[in-house]
Amino acid sequence: MKKVINTPKAPAPIGPYNQAILSGNTLYTSGQIALDPETMELVTDDIQTETKQVMENMKAVLEAADMSFENVIKSSIFISDMNNFKDINTVYGTYFDEATAPARETVEVANLPKFVNVEISMIAIK
Questions:
Q1: Which positions, given as ranges, span the membrane (predicted)?
Q2: Is the full-model pTM beyond 0.90?
Q3: Which one of 9, 15, 99, 115 is most buried, counting C-beta atoms within 10 A?
Q4: Sequential DSSP letters for 56-121
Q5: What is the domain class of 2-125 according to CATH?
């Protein structure tokens, strides 16, 4: 059984998708970018601020499914410039306990939606 997860505390989808889908005990999130959920404006002052907004958006989606970052088993990080990896990783790391952090891949890509610098998606289980 599939349950759609949407919350006004994260940016509204800008296409034919939902913020997340809960299937059984597994949550599959859509990628989050640094859109402010209230204004739908990008928060791209610097890469650390942008990454923090992405993670706060993801936190809201997880909470809408009664989960937290402790439930995350896999993260996918897409970045437009691998030179930003260290700063992105520093912010990302503040949301997880390193000993129990999820599996992850980080991939540099040519472009991302709205030409942002970072997009993150996650899989979580209850």
A1: none
A2: yes
A3: 9
A4: HHHHHHHHHTT--GGGEEEEEEEES-GGGHHHHHHHHHTTS-GGGPPEEEEEE-S--GGG-SEEEE
A5: alpha beta
